Amino acid sequence: MHPDAETLLAEYPDIKMVEAFITDCNGAARGKWLPIEKLSALLSAGIKLPKSAIAQDAWGRDVPSVALDNGDIDGWCQAIPGSLKPVLGSHSVDQAQVVLTMFKDNGSPLLSDPRQVLAHVTQALETKGFYPRVAIELEFNLFDRQTAGQSLRDALPAPHQTGGNLYGLTALDEHQALLEALRHYFDTQDLPYEGVLKEAAPAQYEINVAYSDDALTYCDQIVRMQRGIRAVATRFGAQASFMPKPMEHQAGNGMHMHCSLLDNSGSNLFDSGDAAGTPLLREAVAGCLQMMSDTHLIFAPSYNAYRRFQPGNHAPTQPNWGFDNRTTALRIPA
Question: The pTM is what?
Answer without folding.
Answer: 0.94
